[in-house]
Write a structure and sequence with these properties.
The chain has 299 residues and is α/β, with parallel strands linked by helices. The chain contains 9 helices and 10 strands.
Length: 299
């Protein structure tokens, strides 16, 4: 393993678009981010306002003139592309296509999506609906926005908790412009032990066998409040959860992923001090510097 300097890392946080999506670039710069993640619209509402041309122009100018070198978008919490409810599924497809088009307008090249939930119909039925949804989406989608499948914790009836399930989606929709977003908290909660160097290597070896590391386009770096295999998604500050420092140090020093962006979605405080703390710790790990997060950080 070999590390990176803080300047080489594509590292940052999910940032707010309050006041206009162009403000996200400013917020990222204030944190020293070289990568950020955003919503392109309110994630808790079905309706979206069309992007104003002047707002798009301000975002693109701010992005081009900033130290932020990578932007990903995350889809709405309401979207369920595996839903057995035909109306909800169609609505999810339409909203997802709208989000892809918004990404294209903004020059954002990646949209992260949770694979969805089968709602008690069973894995195969849910997977079939999901695959059909993606086939419909790719028949209409912009050609230059990559869809990043995010692994889940396996909570409830969620699909995509295992690498094998993600690999099946990729294989059944070969026409898709896909990549994978690997969330460390979700993986740990799903039973992938990232809490040690040995565990990390075993997990990434399995990822390579099932999917291929060349498909890994983004990391979500989150520690876990809940135990290994709990299937409960609860994010914690880096090094203060049950994954701990060793697992994150292994990831940050892994030379295979030098150019892969890393985004934190750790708990937010009233100001940006929590994000600053977590990013500072990760940069130190990447440089191979000694760190200690045993003293709990309280934003």
């Amino acid at each position: 393993m070999s590390g990176q300097t803080g300047d080489q890392l594509l590292l940052g946080a999910h940032v707010s678009i309050s006041g206009g999506i162009d403000k996200a670039i400013v917020r990222g710069e204030e944190l020293g981010c070289t990568a950020i993640q955003v919503f392109t619209a309110n994630a808790s509402r079905w309706q979206t306002k069309p992007l104003d041309e002047k707002l798009v122009e301000r975002f693109c100018l701010a992005y081009a003139d900033s130290s932020v070198n990578y932007v990903a978008a995350h889809d709405s919490y309401l979207i369920n592309l595996a839903s057995p409810n035909k109306l909800q599924c169609r609505r999810s497809i339409e909203r997802f296509l709208e989000e892809l088009r918004r990404c294209q307008q903004l020059g954002i090249g990646a949209l992260v999506v949770h694979p969805g939930a089968h709602m008690e119909r069973g894995l195969e039925a849910g997977m079939t609906t999901l695959v059909e949804s993606f086939r419909t989406i790719f028949s209409e989608a912009p050609a230059d926005v990559r869809i990043l499948l995010e692994n889940t914790a396996g909570q409830g009836t969620s699909l995509g908790a295992s690498f094998a399930e993600l690999a099946e989606i990729l294989s059944r929709v070969p026409q898709g412009l896909f990549g994978v977003c690997l969330d460390t908290c979700h993986a740990f909660a799903a039973g992938y032990d990232l809490s040690s160097y040995t565990g990390y290597e075993q997990v990434m070896d399995e990822f390579e066998r099932e999917i291929g590391c060349e498909k890994l386009c983004l990391f979500h770096l989150n520690d876990s409040k809940k135990p290994l295999g709990s299937r409960v998604d609860r994010h914690e500050h880096i090094g203060q959860g049950l994954i701990g420092e060793e697992g994150f140090r292994a990831l940050m020093r892994d030379g295979r992923f030098t150019g892969v962006p890393r985004i934190i979605e750790t708990p937010k405080g009233e100001d940006q001090s929590a994000d600053r703390h977590n990013l500072r710790l990760l940069r130190a790990m990447a440089r191979g510097e000694p760190t200690c997060s045993t003293k709990k950080f309280h934003p």
